[in-house]
Structure formats: structure tokens, C-alpha cells
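README: folding subset

This subset contains proteins for which both the sequence and a predicted C-alpha cell string are available. Records are stored as plain text. Below is the entry for HTH-type transcriptional activator CmpR (313 residues), shown exactly as it appears on disk.
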Amino acid sequence: MTEADRMPSTGPIPHLETFCKAAELASFTRAAEALGLTQAAVSQHVRSLERELGVPLFHRRAGRVELADAGRTLYDYARRILDLHDEARAALGLDTPGSEGEVRLAASTVPAECLLPELLGRFRAAHPGIRVVAEVCDSESAVEALEQGKATIALVGRPVAAPWAESWPFASDRLTLVVSGRHEWAGRASVSAEELRTRPLAVREPGSGSRRCLEKALEPLGLTLDDLSVLLELGSNPAIRETAARGVVAAFASAQAVAGELASGRLHEVAVEGLGGLDRLLYVAVDRRRALPPPARAFLRFVREQPSPATAP
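--- output ---
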């Protein structure tokens, strides 16, 4: 941006609604559609705002836009200003745009199957105008959906270490080895690592957070999954649960996913001697390069306000 483009002013900052919408949708075209403007008008508003402030607010890349550092700073203030406008409207009994909309969520199977139903019920009661659309997949696929902009929030079974992401723990889980009453290990409190190595097992599929937790837990024993007799790799918690219940194999499963079966006696928990590290946290993640629309910010705030996670029972 040249000196000629710099037009500092002490007056109100213009076009904040256009700026926020472009930031939240990562697209001038989609922002124009949402605001009922032409793309040229959105581009003009953003250029005028950048001239007003004297700094670039977006990186333009192949039809998409991402917030620059100055844009991320401005977005936090701009969103607060617009939120205050919404609060004023609400205080006057007027409609508030932030109270409606859609959240696109990608969730791995344990959060989706064990936590999301209750979570969504309570969120819906608090925010009846916001609709949550959830895709259920493994943790790796959920992170990919977040990176590609197909989801605005991800619930996954591991922290997201990528530099573009930010994640926070919101719940806990524990892996456990389970068998049916017909299995040879039924009635035993524990088995040795050597027994584990030689008996057929069922585990979760590559890409799942549960599988990654098990892989890390085996490392101190000098074992990998290749050292075990893995008979089945299954893509869902119900499949793991039912396979173990039929008595064919032992299975490593989420304690959350098999809590009912353990309580009823349909499945039995067996410890593995020397195997620790099976406790894990579940995470909510966002793409820090993209601004969250108000509905997604409401959902993120709701999730992060849940009680601090503790070890699963």
C-alpha cells in the first residue's frame, strides 16, 4: 500500500459489516451474496477501509481471501462493535442478526456419538435460531474439513498441532480393553503384554484419535500395532462394540462408547499389565486464519464454557 493510499482519519471506521462478512466467509463473492451487494461493491468497501486505516486487511489468494495480521486485529474490535449494535437492538425488542444462522461442524466419532446429542440439545435450547450441521468422520478427516473451510469448528480426539489451527480441551475419554462374557479373558482382571500380543484384536481405523492414543500408549512397551494380532480395523464405535460383544475378539474401545455395555455386564473391562497412557482429552478446534461467524462463535463459546474435562470413568 503506497503513501498515496493512506488516508488516516479520526472519524468512525466505515464498512465494518462488509469487512466482517468477507472475513467470516473468506470470500468477497459470498459476502456480496450474503449482504445483497455486488462483488464490486464489497471490493470497493474493503479497499476504502484499507485506505482509511492505511494497512492491508486481507491476503488475496486464488479466489479466496484470508485475514492479514492487521485484519485479525481489526476483526476482534469490529465484531465487538457489531455485537454491541445487536445488543442495542435486542434491548429495544428488535431482531438481532447474530441470533440466527448455521454452524458447520466436523466431529470425530466419540464426540459425535457420545457427547454431541446432549450438547446440541442444550445449545438448541439456548440458541433456538441457530442450526448445527454436523459431519461425522475420524479425527484426521475432521481436521482436513476444518483446514479446507468445509467446517467452521471441529470436535476431535487429539489436539490440532498445525500452525493455522487453535484447539482447546473440552471433554475427556479413556481407551479400555473389553471382552464379552464368552471370551477366554472374561473374569480376569488383567492380562500380560505378551498375551495381548498373541490374541486377535479389534481396533479403530487409521486416522482416528482412539487409534493414535493406543499407538502412543504402546510405545513405552516397545510395541506397535504391527506387533499385535490385529484381526479387524473398524470405522465406528458401534462396530467395535458389537464385534467385542459377539465374543470373537478383544477390542480397544472408548470408555464413553461402551459405558452402557460395561454397566449391564454385556462387556467386561480387562487391564493390560504395564500399559498406561490410555486417558485422553477431546478437543474443539478452529482455523485461526478465518474469522468465525456469529453463530459459530456462539457455539464455540458454549462448548468452551462446559465444565473442565476430567479423566473419564
